[in-house]
Predict the structure of Flavin-containing monooxygenase.
Amino acid sequence: MDRFAETEGKRAHDPLYSPRRAARATATGFPVGEHGEVLTDALIVGAGPAGLAVAACLTMRDVPYALLERHGCIASLWRHRTYRRLRLHLPKQYCELPQMPFPASYPEYPSREQFLDYLEEYLRYFGIRPFFRQEVVSAEFDGEFWCVRTKDVIVAAGIDGGNEEAVLASAGTSEYRSKWLVVATGENAEPVLPEIDGIDMFKGEVMHSCEYRSGEGYQGKKVLVVGCGNSGMEVSLDLSNHNVHTSMVVRDTVHVLPREIMGLSTFRLSLWLLMYLSVQTVDRILLLLTRLVLGDTAQFGIPRPSIGPMELKQVCGKTPVLDVGTISKIKSGDIKVLPGIQSFREHGVEFIDGRIEDFDVVILATGYKSNVPYWLKENSFFSEKDGFPRKPNEWKGKNGLYAAGFSRRGLLGVSTDATNIADDIKQCWNDIGYEKHKTK
Ligand SMILES: Cc1cc2nc3c(=O)[nH]c(=O)nc-3n(C[C@H](O)[C@H](O)[C@H](O)COP(=O)(O)OP(=O)(O)OC[C@H]3O[C@@H](n4cnc5c(N)ncnc54)[C@H](O)[C@@H]3O)c2cc1C
């Protein structure tokens, strides 16, 4: 399907359309305004799974859009910031985007490569053509339209498209004006790098887990993984599988659940139980089963929060870690669990219990954050503190502002948001078209 040919056909209903503007079309195919700004219908920022899902849903509803992405590829998080052993944590049926199931040949937990192939196919199937290397640096509502400014991103030759993250530098700027702005820049837009006392004096290698690809090349080294979320646990497992001397810092309490219990996905089991039982009862059942499968995790240095895993998710959005083998490596002593870090030293780390150990490499599996507060000049819908919508599960703000993929429910949440947003924009688009014809 050629989206631009299709777009032309819809100009008759386009509230932004005028023949004079159309005479000045940019290379994007969209008309330009008096001051050179590109005039689009809906504007989506971010070509990750959420941005692609919104684009596909708008295509299915015949609403034209422009999709801006700072990198030179789709799903840059999955392509450039993930380790090679990564698989979807949840069964595939909970991770598919609207209107297109995963191929039947895919396993229950598709690999990173399979997920990327699926997204490329999604792009092709819906004729989605993102505008790449357009980093949104500001967006503001002027009373009628969203005015969005981008920087053109230049990529160092030979890096983009490979396995490395693109080097981002910027040259020219562009401006877009749109009735509807869909923020799909992700919950994980930027890595979080904690300030730990003395980290600058450490002579070894320090990296964020988003730079880690595999344990190859670390043999013979002492590696410390800081953090025990899904990334920290899996990076530790991967290092240990490559016979690397691995330690993992566990500072806080965390719920670790087996990915499967008696061959059944723990996630699927929880959803099923939640249909019939209270969240507290479901938590009691899950923790009992988990203890049978994994044992008492507190005994090997991973204490549990006082609130159960599902209730904790509901109350503060904290996702339980799904174990894919790390706990057994901890039990066998292949992965050592250490408490919080007091400070770094030249060749190692002092822990809060007074222990001092040497390390060659430190991997900060310390999570990610939203980048929305850096560029969106709006703070009634999005919080300026964490860059998430202020109310949980909220996808619609004022003046045509939307959030796709910020519900802390992974790809399942992405699909729901995309469908809701596209329905809402379609409704407004019809209403505006109708008003326009009425006033003619
Ligand atoms: C290691 C890891 C494993 C995960 N595994 C799972 C899993 O198994 N199942 C699951 O459901 N979820 C998983 N997640 C969560 C995952 O992030 C989401 O499910 C999914 O990637 C969300 O898609 P998204 O489009 O909202 O965000 P992203 O995938 O982060 O995409 C956002 C896009 O926006 C672009 N962007 C950001 N800022 C700008 C800007 N200013 N201008 C232009 N473009 C911009 C980015 O380059 C990116 O391409 C995982 C996350 C990580 C980090």
